[in-house]
């Protein structure tokens, strides 16, 4: 298994922390950041505070890392990988994929670098090919711009959540702090 993937999944689990059951958190009951609904979908049926670390690791690997093709993304940028992975865990794989696709579409110089992508959130071969083409054309500076574009969409999403539901406002600073400091 890829050492970078092991490290980044471990760091994410550490950021997420242990057992939490905050009644105002939309995610509900969690362990290592894994929601009860996600754990049940994965086949874990015991009490959430008993979720083993290794099960959480497998959930993150199979349900977040793999669908976003983060092993491919990590060949270009560890920082982009971390942002997309964290985005997917907090807001869903499709949301993270859509943010990447939207950013790539507006950064492709009117399709002169690569064709526009369908913004469906599915990180497939076309998205990875576009990302590789973008990185080849724009180099590290371009990757930094792309990371900022993805992070900005994530920040906007969090602000919209809090603006539309005051009960979520208590989490906003923490959400934004996390994105800015990843």
UniProtKB/TrEMBL annotation:
Start and end of every Peptidoglycan binding domain? Answer: 98-180
TtsA-like Glycoside hydrolase family domain mapped to chain residues: 11-92
* UniProt keyword annotations, A-Z: Hydrolase
InterPro entries found in the cross-reference section: Lysozyme-like_dom_sf (IPR023346), Peptidoglycan-bd_3 (IPR018537), TtsA-like_GH18_dom (IPR008565)
One Pfam family assigned to this protein is Glyco_hydro_108
Native source species: Pseudoalteromonas sp. SD03
Protein name as catalogued: Glycoside hydrolase family 108 protein
The GO terms describing molecular function are: hydrolase activity
């Amino acid at each position: 298994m890829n050492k970078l993937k092991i490290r980044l999944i471990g760091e994410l689990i550490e950021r997420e922390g242990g057992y939490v059951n905050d009644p105002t958190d939309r995610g509900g009951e969690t362990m290592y950041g894994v929601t009860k609904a996600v754990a049940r979908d994965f086949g874990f049926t015991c009490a959430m505070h008993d979720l083993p670390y290794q099960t959480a690791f497998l959930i993150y690997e199979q349900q977040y890392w793999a669908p976003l093709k983060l092993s491919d993304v990590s060949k270009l940028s560890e920082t982009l990988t971390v942002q997309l992975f964290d985005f997917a865990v907090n807001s869903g794989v499709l949301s993270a994929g859509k943010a990447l696709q939207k950013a790539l579409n507006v950064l492709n110089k009117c399709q002169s670098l690569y064709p526009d992508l369908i913004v469906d959130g599915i990180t497939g071969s076309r998205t990875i090919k576009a990302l590789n083409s973008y990185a080849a054309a724009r180099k590290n500076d371009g990757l930094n711009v792309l990371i900022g574009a993805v992070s900005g969409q994530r920040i906007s999403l969090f602000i919209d959540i809090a603006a539309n539901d005051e009960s979520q406002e208590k989490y906003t600073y923490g959400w934004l702090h996390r994105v800015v400091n990843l």
